[in-house]
Specification:
The complex is a heterodimer. By secondary structure, chain A is of the alpha/beta class. Chain A is built from twelve helices and twelve strands. In chain A, the strands form two sheets. In chain A, strands 6-7-8-3-9-10-12-11 form an eight-stranded mixed sheet, sandwiched between helices. Chain A has a four-stranded antiparallel sheet with strand order 2-1-4-5, covered by helices on one side. Chain B has two domains: 219 residues, Rossmann fold (3-Layer(aba) Sandwich), CATH 3.40.50.300; 105 residues, no CATH class. Helices cover 30% and strands 23% of the residues of chain B. Chain B is built from twelve helices and 13 strands. In chain B, strands 6-7-8-3-9-10-12-11-13 form a nine-stranded mixed sheet, with helices on both faces. In chain B, strands 2-1-4-5 form a four-stranded antiparallel sheet, with helices on one face. Chain B is globular. The two termini of chain B are 22 Å apart. Classes of the chains: A alpha/beta, B alpha/beta. At the A-B interface, helix 7, helix 8 and helix 11 of A face helix 7, helix 8, helix 9, helix 10 and helix 11 of B.
Chain lengths: 324, 340
């Protein structure tokens, strides 16, 4: 992994914060001080429970939200300081696949218009755009006849393919996949995952994969970032993280995966995790996981743990790990 | 032991503008006391409709029974009148709905929603009802029941709401609880908590649970027996070990291979089941899975397969087990069983 160390990362997220002011006194800290890099051609997964800020992170990285503080660099340039021309170029390079294929496609537009919209926006003629749409649909396993149909005429899996075709239309380098398979049936999920992998191999795409299905994450990603209540608690290469989870939250999360194997599932001792994810409104300035952590000490309730590198590429934010 | 519930040749359809949808086509199974029976299948395979039939929850019309019977302790549910059904629902069989966010009434306090089950039951004072509701809240792992009792659903998190749904289902002390995708909308850590609650209740109260899910992980963790449904039919049934380790139907096999497991190697491709589920407006003449099956033979398209018995519990509905079928890796030692 020394190679990637030297390479310039494609996307750099530095101390990214996104707060939502709910009222004068209440601040929802959706994303709090997030720092990670994504290198070209790799898949980085963001995992965590719902409400931990993974989607907000994805959306801020594509400029759907303006950050409260912090920077996101794409190819070394700060995306929040782009001028008009650079912004247009950025839209071409970075695309997003949304979670819900039922609500992310405009029901009044035909497939041709949905997929071709971006192309025309970037100055392609209707004729060229149509040809390109046809080609794109073939890439995602649909055909020419589907071009003049409306989204409601498709099944969930097919709609997600349309969403993928739309994201691919402008030949992006970097795609943010926000839970692309969670709304699909099991037998269809595999079709979409395989397709994403093939596209990555063919086109050298870089993915940020936002998901909560940890088995799929293990299968698809090179590196994983675990988030809890807006903060990053652990990051490592996938195998390292699954084999040696250091943070108590990661350990609990991994042990909760329902395994599709009765013997293993029954033998597997789940690490219990008390209660539920607390509210991200006005969080205390200490370890966010402290109140649910079975190892929590006094220090955990007083001090915010910092990210610390314990092995090459493996970083954890936990007081207990630092003590060792 | 005697079966609590027996479903025989159940057929249920819906009349729609587009024609008749045959949602459940000739389904038979039984529920034994104190077991957890899993029903697994993709959306639209008829698993929810089947289980809702058991309580007659499907709107009739447009739905109607084309045939079959549902015997609960020897009594046919299909022949019950409205009054009998009212006594039956909640007291004998109850239902945990899929989405806790939308199945609770947002304008009613939690306590009242739980007590609603007792409406029409005689001989219970308000204090008794409340005591019972608090007891049940404690049982499903809600610690500060007194406070929750007075709260509205929007004040609760998703996991809490699902616990309340379970409480509502249990408060009438039913002998069967149907849990329809109880954890689909929840996070893994909360999912594990809810599954523990279900498992404990089954252990302490001896309630039978019918668990409907598309997640094989949940099935593996909780169930004793499994029914695999596809296209409105049961294609395979057996104990959980038989289904997972001695898979006898190509669809079940496909399901197992299409999910990413923790030990799936990086380079290894997932094997999706190609194609899409059948259109139940015009269900296929033969095996419902024929169009997507890698082993499909000529006969599969023309004739519905017979049922073959692998063991006392384990049955599969597939032509590959026929003595004239070519030898494949799906071949098992079977005894032929007439059309079920």
């Amino acid at each position: 992994m020394e190679n990637t160390e030297k390479k310039q990362p494609l996307v750099q997220v530095k101390n990214l914060c996104k707060y939502f002011e709910i009222s004068r006194k209440e601040t929802l800290k959706a994303v709090d001080d997030l720092t990670f890099d994504i290198y070209k051609g790799e898949t980085v997964s963001l995992v965590g429970e719902s409400g931990c800020g993974k989607s907000t992170t994805g959306r801020t990285m594509i400029k759907l939200y303006n950050p409260t503080s912090g920077n996101v660099y794409y190819d070394g340039k700060d995306i929040f300081k782009y001028n008009h021309a650079e912004q247009k170029e950025f839209c071409k390079k970075v695309q997003m696949i949304f979670q819900n294929p039922y609500s992310s496609l405009n029901p009044r537009m035909t497939v041709k218009d949905i997929v071709g919209e971006g192309l025309k926006q970037h100055g392609m003629s209707t004729k060229d755009a149509d040809a390109k749409v046809e080609q794109l649909l073939a890439t995602v396993g649909l055909n020419k006849d589907h071009m003049s149909r409306f989204p409601h005429e498709f099944s969930g899996g097919q709609r997600q393919r349309i969403g993928i075709a739309r994201a691919l239309s402008v030949d992006p380098e970097f795609i943010i996949c926000d839970e692309p398979i969670s709304a699909l049936d099991v037998s269809i999920q595999a079709q979409v995952i395989n397709m994403l992998k093939e596209l990555q191999e063919e086109r050298g795409l870089t993915y940020l994969f936002i998901a909560h299905d940890l088995s799929v994450v293990k299968y698809i990603s090179d590196r994983v970032v675990v988030m809890y209540l807006g903060t990053m608690v652990e990051t490592a290469e996938t195998d390292e993280l699954y084999d040696h989870p250091m943070h108590p939250y990661t350990q609990a999360l991994l042990s909760a995966i329902p395994e599709a194997d009765p013997h293993k599932a029954k033998a597997n001792q789940r690490i219990p995790i008390k209660g539920e994810i607390p509210s991200p409104i006005n969080p205390k300035n200490c370890c966010r996981f402290a109140e649910r952590c079975q190892y929590a000490t006094e220090r955990c309730f007083k001090e915010m743990p910092q990210m610390k590198e314990i092995a090459p590429g493996h970083k954890v934010a936990c007081h207990l790990v630092e003590d060792k | 032991m005697e079966n609590l519930l027996e479903v025989k040749n159940l057929q249920f359809s819906f009349r729609t503008y587009g024609g008749v949808v045959k949602a459940v086509r000739d389904v038979s199974f039984e529920v034994r006391p104190g077991e957890i029976l899993g029903i697994v299948g993709e959306s639209g395979c008829g698993k929810s409709v089947t289980s809702q039939c058991l309580m007659r929850l499907n709107p009739e019309p447009p739905g109607f029974f084309e045939g079959g019977e549902i015997l609960y302790k020897g009594k046919d549910v299909l022949k019950m009148n409205k009054k009998e059904l009212r006594q039956f629902r909640g007291k004998e069989i109850s239902y945990i709905f899929q989405d806790p966010m939308t199945s609770l009434n947002p304008t009613m306090r939690i306590g009242k929603q739980i007590e609603e089950v007792f409406v029409g039951r005689k001989g219970m004072s308000a204090a008794e009802k409340k005591a019972k509701a608090l007891e049940i809240l404690k049982m499903v792992g809600i610690s500060d029941g007194e406070r929750r009792y007075k709260q509205y659903p929007h004040e609760l998190s998703g996991g809490m709401k699902q616990r309340v749904m379970i409480a509502i289902a249990l408060v009438g002390s039913p002998s069967i609880v149907i849990a329809d995708e109880p954890t689909t909308s929840l996070d893994v850590t909360i999912e594990a908590q809810i599954l523990d609650v279900l498992k404990n209740l089954q252990k302490t109260l001896g309630t039978s649970i019918i668990l409907i899910t598309h997640d094989l992980g949940v099935i593996a963790k909780l169930c004793d027996r499994v029914l695999v449904m596809y296209g409105g039919k049961i294609v395979e049934r057996g104990s959980v070990d038989e289904i997972f380790y001695d898979t006898a139907h190509p669809y079940t096999k496909g399901l197992m291979h299409s999910i990413a497991k923790l030990d799936t190697a990086k380079g290894q491709k997932l094997q999706p089941i190609e194609g899409t589920p059948p259109d139940l407006f015009a269900p296929p003449k033969g095996c419902p899975f024929a169009a997507r099956c890698e082993y499909c033979m000529e006969i599969c398209k023309d004739m519905p397969p017979q049922t073959y018995e692998l063991s006392k519990e384990h049955e599969t509905c597939c032509w590959l087990q026929h003595e004239y079928a070519p030898d494949t890796d799906m071949r098992k030692k079977v005894t032929e069983k007439g059309e079920v």
